[in-house]
Amino acid sequence: MSRLADYFVIVGYDSDKEKTASNVGGQPTCGKIVQRFPEKDWPDTPFIEGIEWFCQPLGWSLSYEKQEPKFFVSVLTDIDANKHYCACLSFHETVAITQTRSVDDEDETIGSSRLLGATPSSTDGITATSTPASITHHSVMYAPKCLVLISRLDCAETFKNCLGTIYTVYIENLAYGLETLIGNILGCIQVPPAGGPQVRFSIGAGDKQSLQPPQSSSLPTTGSGVHFLFKQLGIKNVLILLCAVMTENKILFLSKCYWHLTDSCRALVALMYPFRYTHVYIPILPAPLTEVLSTPTPFIMGIHSSLQTEITDLLDVIVVDLDGGLVTIPESLTPPVPILPSPLWEQTQDLLSMILFPNLAQADLAFPTLERPSAIAKTDAQIDKELRAIFMRLFAQLLQGYRSCLTIIRIHPKPVITFHKAGFLGARDMIESEFLFRVLDSMFFTTFVNERGPPWRSSDAWDELYSSMNELLKSEAQNRNLILTHIQELGRVLYENEGTLAHINYAQKVLRPPEGAFQRIHQPAFPRISSEKVELIIQEGIRKNGVPQRFHVTRNQHRIIPMGPRLPEALDVRPNVQNSARRLEVLRICVSYIFENRITDARKLLPAVMRTLMHRDARLILCREFFGYVHGNKAVLDHQQFELVVRFMNKALQKSSGIDEYTVAAALLPMSTIFCRKLSTGVVQFAYTEIQDHAIWKNLQFWESTFFQDVQGQIKALYLLHRRQNEHQKEANCVLDEVPLEEPTALEITAEQLRKSPSIEEEKKAELAKSEESTLYSQAIHFANRMVSLLVPLDVNVDAASKPKPAFRLEENHSVSNSIMGSHSLSEHSDEGFEENNALEIGVTVGKTISRFIDCVCTEGGVTSEHIRNLHDMVPGVVHMHIESLEPVYLEAKRHPHVQKPKIQTPCLLPGEDLVTDHLRCFLMPDGREDETQCLIPAEGALFLTNYRVIFKGSPCDPFFCEQVIVRTFPIASLLKEKKISVLYLAHLDQTLTEGLQLRSSSFQLIKVAFDPEVTPEQIESFRKILSKARHPFDEFEYFAFQSYGTMLQGVAPLKTKEKYSTLKGFAKKTLLRGAKKAGFKQKQQTKRKLVSDYDYGSADAQETQSIDDELEDGDEFETQNNAMPRLLTTKDVERMRERSYVQDWKRLGFDAESQRGFRISNANTSYATCRSYPAIIVAPVQCSDAAIMHLGRCFKGQRIPLPTWRHANGALLIRGGQPNSKSVIGMLKNTTGSTTNAHHDVTHYPEQDKYFLALINTMPKLTPLALNQYSGMNLSMSSLMGHSSSDDRQPLTPELSRKHKNNLDISDGNKSSQGGKSGTMKGNPKNSSAHPFRKMRLYALGEKSQAKSNMNVDFCADFIPVDYPDIRQSRPAFKKLIRACMPSHNTNEADGQSFAKMVEQSDWLQQISSLMQLSGAVVDLIDLQESSVMLSLEDGSDVTAQLSSIAQLCLDPYYRSLDGFRVLVEKEWLAFGHRFAHRSNLKPSHANTNIAFAPTFLQFLDVVHQLQRQFPMAFEFNDFYLRFLAYHSVSCRFRTFLFDCELERSDSGIAAMEDKRGSLNAKHMFGAGGMAANGSDDECSVYPLDIRSQRTPAPLNRIGHSIFDYIERQHNKTPIFYNFLYSGDKSMTLRPQNNVAALDLWCYYTNEELAQGAPYDLEVTTVDDEIDLSETKGKRMVITAGYDNMEKCNPNAYVCLLSEVKQAETERGHLPQKWLQVWNSLEVPQLEPVARNTSLGNIFVQTHQHKRSTLEIIMKGRLAGYQDKYFHPHRFEKHPYTTPTNCNHCTKLLWGPVGYRCMDCGNSYHEKCTELSMKNCTKYKAIDGAVGPPNVNMSQGDTASIASSAATTARTSSHHFYNQFSSNVAENRTHEGHLYKRGALLKGWKQRWFVLDSIKHQLRYYDTSEDTAPKGIIELAEVQSVTAAQPAQIGAKGVDEKGFFDLKTSKRIYNFYAINANLAQEWIEKLQACLQ
């Protein structure tokens, strides 16, 4: 039983304090306690001070009007956190104001009264006075008085009735003693506890009252407060508010009603049930205490709305406006309010809507179901309870299984329970739930665990709900209608708990005053109560109530709390999609292999296990499997077992994230001190030394939770042991034994002990408590040792200077407890970390950490202070001993590598190849190549550096492929870029390596390695330096080609083959010095740049085409030619020169004098004086002398004179040379005008050129008319465009004449002819009715566009065609992009989303190959079909010229498609004519410090040959491997062939003389016998008397090196590795390949790889040339892996197999095997009867149509390019959306959508990228039928018209400076023009503009001035709707004519114009209207 009320207090207005002058600015409170009863405090309930503040929350103030009595309840909390409810009834009494000051002090009094009586906080209140002057003007005022009941019971309605009765007795002056009423309330009315009966009482004023205590003390009572809260705020706001309260945020309620504040705060706290709010709780906060809102602790408070303006600076308080229904969450609130987990949030909202809005579900139904009207409508109180039931269910679902995570650490003398938060979150899979995480960390949850954790206690409704929640949810899942039923049932329980029904059944009688009684004028003051009478009544009541209780409360008895749903154990594995049973089985098998010491088998499963450990369940399985193999306290493993176990433990810890890491770490913790390995005698290394790096070990909360879990297990084992001893009388080790299922849980044991506790003797209890305390103490010692093991690093004794300094500290946490301490980890970025890393400081820090842990767990577990002190004393000694024991372990562990590394495999080396550095152990890393070899990479091995190659050799890390050998290699000379990389992750080893190297080679190889940790940075740097030195040696003779013995790094000087000028460098240096002296320069002032200027006579145009890179490259090669020293040659030397292969080829072609075809083979360059980069022997016309040829050299770039290099059977020549040095260099290169008077106006400088070219042209075939019966329709079509006619004297229609005739674009059709020219009529061919704009030429010169102004003179029947070609500036970036596409260093799909095909396309490599094939195809057509000669004079004549010349000869001459012929072609066109191999491959020693890029000129040529070979597989004697072999060794420097820039350098080095000697011996094999070399002997000494490989070779010849073609010839004699068995040997076929990009393929040389042996092009080390043994492969199943095996070797073609069978058969029969070539040549080709068919014109036309079209386009584009800059206009483009498919006029591809541009003048359509490339051929007129041509081109029928149109529109120019020469204001396009004022669209200002009306283009354009060419704007007349006169406006000028204004309205806007006068305006209007009509 308890008192109804503890105190009755009368509080009145303190007038004395108001009058006190010292109170100015002092306390704002003006209330005082008038009387209180009882006057002495109750012993169990002290009186609460400061009650005056809460009686008037807005402050005490006088009022000049009487206020109605008010009632509210404030809640106060004492120091013990007990709530006291203060029921306050407030009314007003009359007081008289007496003036105590003189008139002089009136002002001061007024100020004083304002401060005292009207505080700022009260001026806005209900009872506050409006102005301070009102106090002085009213003699009668009203002061507040309050009657207050203070109670520990929340009985607001009863308090209201009691105080109302007292007030009624007072106000009505009834005959009841107030003392009696007060005394009865305080002393006579006793209230039973929760569950007791109803109490009926009277306080002595004739009243009848009842009070029903709740049935449960734990269930809160709310009345209808919760329902009110939802009505005011809404569902979502209340939910957010609940989440805010549960996560300990600050909540502030605002309302004008105190009752709303109290009810809402009570309702919000009630929604938290089963949690209790334990923070600051003040439903009504007085105004003087508003500064309390700034407290840092969470709170729930309420204030009057009038105080809202004073609390604007609260940045972390959630403000709830109850009256307005608004919840305001500050934006700066951190962390933000988390919401409920996703499913619960939506479910709760749905359930709340179901209760609050029951008809919502059927609101939209057309025919809602008619429900029976309930007999009794639900009251607000019933709805209130159903709402609370929803939240009870919510928390029951949220905390499902919480009892499984309760940890019992003490049972006696009282239970101590903690909660394993990490285990709960992990088991519920709610680690990511921020809401639940913060709830578990809150103080509410700590209280919840303390109150509801004990398993033996009284239960309430929530406990019942929690235990049955799972069954309810299952039934509701099957029947959704049960949800509402269950909620209503739970709501009924809550409703009955408050006893509302019993309360209603009793008729209460309560006194209340009549209405308006408070306004009585003559109302006496509240009388003073006699305290003596009240005390007597109180004492009497206490005496009467002292008898024993008349009733007994039977409810809420103690019982065992049901466990509810159980969570799975920590190491239980639940089925999951991500871990199949097979994966977990593989994990178990691997662990069993480890402990069975089957390490090889375990390593094979290692990658799969590592992937499996990515999942949580697999990590738990691993821990359980490890635990199953533990027997005893120590498990000694061997090194490999230990390494794998530690690796698995690290992987499990590394992949665990968040709180889930606790479970795995706790499971691995005991095993870290069990698994160990023996390092040496007496030195044992435990597993904890290898897993110390994980942050979990530095987390104190982890250690606490793990400690408490272990203690619970020990406590449980302790009581189970007692029970077993009592029941079975035998001992059992419960810790290590398997726990049977029937064993009780720790909670069940605790419940049993608590149930027995009253009957257990005190001695027994003390014994049990002592046992528990000892268990905690021993476990604390054990954990202290574990913490020492894992916190002290292994290298603690290492000197601080030799290792980095770790910042090792624990974050400070002053209130460390298991409930409120967060996850405080060791910080790595702390200012309090170690300054010096030595063992002493580490020991001290670890000791402090362990001491804090001991204080925390031992204090919570109730360990005695003596034991705690012993623990603190023990820790430093344990730390010190452990640190000492680690030193030998660290030293021994360093000697024992963790991983048994594989043995280094030595690579196979070539003869003469030696290792120059020690190998570096490393891993070959995967790159971005899309192949099938990624299972073989990464590979572990070593990187080797020889004097020839960089080699990686190793084996795959994948254990399933570890028996394979991985080789990647490339020549050092092909190294493009060396890059240092870092932080490389190895997934197979789960290891990150810090040092790596990436090497990229021009042989299309990429080696990306990560160095093993044992490789030091110094070794890596040394390797890089040696590699760089080997890449750019001091001299060319240090390359591997010249090093048969020795290594490159010993600095051996090369052997000289000549005493003087033995090297090009020495000769160049001396020549330069001698030339400078003769020129008059001093030696110091002479520079290479000056020599260039003296030597190069080129014009500006010629110099523009030379790139900066080329100038840098050529700097060391320029010499003053006039001062070159003549070489002393004997007749024998010259004879040997004339026996060279290219000279023999010229003889074959008929260039010698004996052939009498106008040529001779000249010795003019034998001393290389004519041209230093040309061959010694050249071809010259008979008419030109050697002296004239030498004099010609100055006219051409690099003195490279155009020389004939090949001759067709029809007499057409192929001429190659350098670019001319000026526009008049060729003599006849001038404009092809109709007049002949100035035909030679520009050739006066070099008249000898005319003679030379006339001599060349005279050797060419004469132009003869074509016989139609001799040629197919192909030639008819060509002649129609190229202009074959019956006579040669017809002049072409020139541009100048065409400009004089406007009708020069008439298109010929039918029998019409075009008009033009001087004669006025062009005579056309009557058969095809086509005009002849050009005639056939005998010579076409293909040259640079920079020479486009100079054209061949028609008198010589020559023409100049400027062409586009991929020069070196374009091929370099294309090659770089191709390298990155074929050898990406990373996965491109993940990095930038680009596929391999896309990257190849963007490189433009295939486009350049296509361009080369197209240009060479044009050369082939001109020579073969038209019988015209072609001269190539592109750039310096050594790059693109060599490409085009070689490709053209390959297509025209079948001889060059044989093995011997291709050698001659390369030696002639590339080696003899001076292609700069050394420069282009960046092999010059002078390039070591330059950044010159690799130029793939020769590679592009080989790529074109590959394309030809693919399209014509029967035309070539050699195969694709031959081309790949050449491509590889052109950059490898293994052979001398491609090491020098020209024949001169080979001569200086002595190589040319040696080759001449050999050539004189084997010339007969190559040319004389016509292929006899194939049938000759295999005795190499007969052909090569000085064999390189022979031991008898003299020493000087070892420096000469090998020739690649000699090597190929020897290999060809041995094996058919280079031979194409499909070769047909057709001697007459001319190749015409498809050249569009779609017909090309990417060469496999760029992408193929053979990891088994490396690049297959070094035959000695790759065994590619070995004979195939069929006996080994027959009948066997072979596995061939693309990218790993050599496909040609492993899967040979049928010819190779048959030849091998023949050889094997001969061997078996005892015959001497013949060579394969002899066998092959002896085969008889079966005679095939030719199929008789007539070759039709159509067949030939179809065969060559595509090739002819591209040829004509090149010629037309070249011709048009010569005219476009003079006679064409630029286009003016605008964006244009294409709604129908349209072809681009430039690239002929499709235009579609808003992607195009259209010319506003001629209407041509282009892509955006094509606009810059388009030709300036705008005609200013719309194109007719899409065919636009130049003014001097007439169209003919057939395909030539479209070709001309395409050529005219696709001609490109890069000369942007021509654009400004043209203007768009052509006279005939101006219909009307003049000045007008125009009004701006935005700023509305008037500006004068020059307007042009164009009726042709249908435009109105305006310019700044009349001279401008670019318009400022254009108005399309098609958009104009009307032109009308307008009203005058202000334009800022004087004398404005009002009739000069007119408007032009378009569909977009209205333009305002003003003319100077009305006449001009009218004229403009008429002109515009005329155009519109």
Automatic annotation (TrEMBL):
Domain UDENN: 6-459
Domain of life (superkingdom): Eukaryota
Region (Disordered): 1282-1333
A GO CC term attached to the entry: membrane
Signal peptide as annotated in the record: none
Record-level Gene Ontology MF annotations: guanyl-nucleotide exchange factor activity
PH domain residues: 1869-1973
InterPro entries according to UniProt: cDENN_dom (IPR001194), dDENN_dom (IPR005112), DENN_C (IPR043153), GRAM (IPR004182), Myotubularin (IPR030564), Myotubularin-like_Pase_dom (IPR010569), PH-like_dom_sf (IPR011993), PH_domain (IPR001849)
Residue intervals of the Myotubularin phosphatase domain: 1136-1647
PROSITE patterns, per the entry: DENN, PH_DOMAIN, PPASE_MYOTUBULARIN, ZF_DAG_PE_1, ZF_DAG_PE_2
UniProt-listed CDD domains: PH-GRAM_MTMR5_MTMR13, PH_Sbf1_hMTMR5, PTP-MTMR5-like
Segments crossing the lipid bilayer: none
Residue span, Phorbol-ester/DAG-type domain: 1770-1818
Assigned protein family: Belongs to the protein-tyrosine phosphatase family. Non-receptor class myotubularin subfamily.
Protein name: Myotubularin-related protein 13
Species for this entry: Drosophila mauritiana (Fruit fly)
Organismal lineage: Eukaryota, Metazoa, Ecdysozoa, Arthropoda, Hexapoda
